[in-house]
Amino acid sequence: MTEAEGPLAASTLSSETAIAPGTAHAPAPDASRRGSGRRWLIIGGIALVFVVIIGYVLGGAAAAGGPVARADSALHTAVSHNNDIVDSFSNDPFKGIDLTSDNPDIAAAKAAVATDKQKVVKWQAMVSSDRAALQNVRPELKRSVFTLPEQGTLDRHRQRVDAALSALSTAQKGIDMYTKEFAFVDPFLDAMAGFEAIGKAGTANDIAGVKAQLPGTGASMQKAIDLAQPPAVPAELAPALKGIQQVLTDLQRLVTAVEANDAAAAQKAGTALEADAAILDKYDWTAAETATKALFQPLIDAYNRDMKIAAGN
Predict the structure, then answer these.
(1) pLDDT surpassing 50 at residue 17
(2) Rg of the Cα trace of the chain?
(3) Mean pLDDT score of the chain
(4) For the chain, how are helix, strand and coil distributed in percent, rounded to 5?
(5) Which of 1, 203, 242, 253 is the most buried (most CB within 10 A)?
(6) CA-based nearest residue to 233, from 169, 179, 300
């Protein structure tokens, strides 16, 4: 090659390999791989976030599922006892006491009270069992980070559980009052049975028989008066109880006068007994029943209101 050919060839080579102005540079192989890696990293990060969110939601549902199921079970049982508990509020231990007739059936009244006692035992078992189940599940219905997605469901169930517990508290108040009423009714009916025996002995002119019944009858009557505490035992009964106790006092005076052959004292005691009977005849024995209904009506209303919420209505 000549000296002239050398520069020309170099110039030609340079023009062939030169890049025209405005033409983009082709990406280098390493840069392309780095860009692709970043895209997949971003996509993977987004996917991971979705997985975490889905796992959080599913985990929250799983964490809340157990308490909700247990709350549903406890609520279902409590609501299923609703009819029995409502019936308990219409129970009236005084309904078997009818002293307006000439021959009150004390034995029948005692049998009716015994039946009512068995019912109250049944109601108490229901209330105690339902309350324990609801109290056990309630702490599980609290807020937590893990159950946040299901917090609405947990809140609703907790409100229902609270309503059911309130209803059961009301039912317990009713049962407590019944228990106090029964405590009064038992000695009261014993006293009435004593009066029944006194009446039979008096009809037979059996002064000894009358005298024999007075101590036990008086003790039962005093016990009944001591236990006749409002509101469980209506205050409306107080005048009748005092009147009955006065009858016992005047009967004792009559027996003492007869045994002493004291005609004047016997006549005075007899007159007093007639006055006692007149007072008792004027007493409205339905007053106690009316007062009992008025006492329990607010409890009935509160129980029904709370139990409606507990049932999810």
Answers:
(1) no
(2) 45
(3) 78
(4) 85, 0, 15
(5) 253
(6) 179
Other CB atoms within 10 Å distance of the CB of residue 140: 19
Residues 178 and 172: their CA atoms lie apart, in Å, by 10
- Cα–Cα distance for residue pair 172/89, rounded to 1 Å: 11
pTM, two decimals, is: 0.72
CA distances (Å), origin 137, targets 11, 81, 249: 93, 18, 58
Instruction: Give the Cα separation of 284 and 58 in Å (integer).
Output: 67
Omega into 7 within 30° of 0, i.e. cis? no
- Structure-block tokens of residue 80: 């299923």
Instruction: Locate 19 and state its tokens.
Output: 């890049």
Q: Are 75 and 131 in contact (CB under 8 A)?
A: no
Taken as a whole, the chain contains a residue count of 313
CB 165 within 8 A of CB 132: no
Cβ-based neighbour number of residue 132 at 10 Å = 12
CB hemisphere CA count around 16 (13 angstroms): 6
Closest of 210, 215, 74 to residue 135, by C-alpha? 74
- Domain ranges in the chain are 44-310
Say which residue the tokens 């060839």 belong to: 9
Kindly state the average pLDDT of the residues 275-293: 85
Distance (Å) of CA 283 to CA 192, 242, 278, 288: 16, 12, 9, 11
* pLDDT recorded at residue 56: 38
